[in-house]
Amino acid sequence: MVSRRSVKKCVDEVSDEFENCWSILQSLRRGDNTVDIKEQVFRFQPLLAKAINRLDQLHYSIKSVEKNLRLRRSKVMPNRFRHRLRMLEKYEQVVSEAIKIGKAIGDGFAWLFYSPYSDLIFRHANHPVTKHTPRGIGSEGELAFISNVPAMAGYFVLYHGITSILRIGDVTLIDLKSLEIHGIGDLKSHESSPGTLSISLHAVGRTIDLPDRVRSFLDEVAVKGKVQPAVQMPLPLKERLQKQIKRMANAFAPTDTKASIRIEHESKIGCLKTIQNGMAGSKIACASCGDGLLVVGVRAGDSRSLSARLFGTSGGFDGMDLEAFRSDLNGIVDTDQPPGENWNSISVGTVSIAKLHCATPLPLWDLDADFLRQVLFQEVVLVTCYNPSFLVKKLKNEGFTVESTGNENKFRFYKPFLGGRATIDDSDPFVDMITQGFMSSDAVIDTIKDTFSAMVADNVKPNTRVEMRLHRYS
Length: 474
Known about the structure:
Layout: H1 4-30, H2 37-71, H3 78-114, H4 118-125, H5 137-148, E1 151-152, E2 155-159, E3 171-175, E4 181-193, E5 196-205, H6 210-223, H7 235-251, H8 271-278, E6 284-288, E7 293-299, H9 306-311, H10 326-330, E8 347-350, H11 369-376, E9 380-386, H12 389-397, E10 401-404, E11 411-417, E12 420-424, H13 428-435, H14 441-457
Antiparallel strand pairs: 1-2, 2-3, 3-4, 4-5, 6-7, 7-9, 8-9, 10-11, 11-12
Helix pairs in contact: 1-2, 1-3, 2-3, 2-5
């Protein structure tokens, strides 16, 4: 039976496991010499994987109850049907937010190994997010593998199911000596006989010795009786595997990047230290984070329960009065507007871990670890108030024509280019660079300018779609 009580119980118990994983991640980040690094690394993944899997199974239970409710709609009073459906939707939202917290911790762990491989990170980012681990035998197989095989053939096995950023295959094989990524693998599980689970690992690598190392490892453990002969895989699994092997192989294909641009700007993330210090004895604090951006930190009530915060019963952001920050908000208004135009508008949002793709994950930001923990576990909510007028003005100064799309505060911009014009249709990624990645508007403008210069140098032809791959380090 799925109920509010059962959801709260699950979320709060899983929260304790997330806290343990957070502590391990921060000790790895610090390079803590007082702990056994290898033991901590090997312990981290099964702990986090089991916690996330528990939430995933609760998600499947909620969806099952919702499906049955919809099938019985004609037999349920309309008011009761709507009430029950709203409750299930809230349960799903709470579970989804809890999973994001766990996977943000997993992203931080994966980033320790993946950060030098920007192109490989983009290959992962080009695929849809895997929101949930499998159910049934697939789930059992992945958990059994990652719990019992933390390393093999001289490789550390990094499990993708604890992350949101790793989307190709199920595991990454990392050389234990060099910490280089050597391959990506896919796990397939099926019941070969009653009570017996058969798990297969199929890997594609960038190093020529990967097959020999894996075979040598299998030969060694086979002698000890720990590996059984391969069992015939069911046809549907075989067909799915072939598609996944192709995806894994493509991840290591030569890059098609035409130009690489490196831009160094001081991050505005330091403004969060002002909020961190201001909240030491207060429930609310704010800081200006560059042109047009005000960030307000709000403590989410007095509740120590993650479930209460996710259910929204602990107070905080929902009851926040921005009127108290009128003078600060006036500071992000652009009073110097050209005749007949006014680009001033303020969008209110929150710093979202779901928007930080191809960027240093929040758990590894250059801020106090306890403050980051409070933000991640939603004890503190970072509210962003952003006015795009300053960015629009700088784009115009660079020769761009800027037009509103008519959709809230979104805009497009374009300029003449090699006899035609080059257009960027969506401003959101650049606004996110400011409001989520804490880049300055000058850094955003430099990114756009240098991209256009690279397009000229590369003699980009008309009607060409240019992909900008932004990789941010905080």
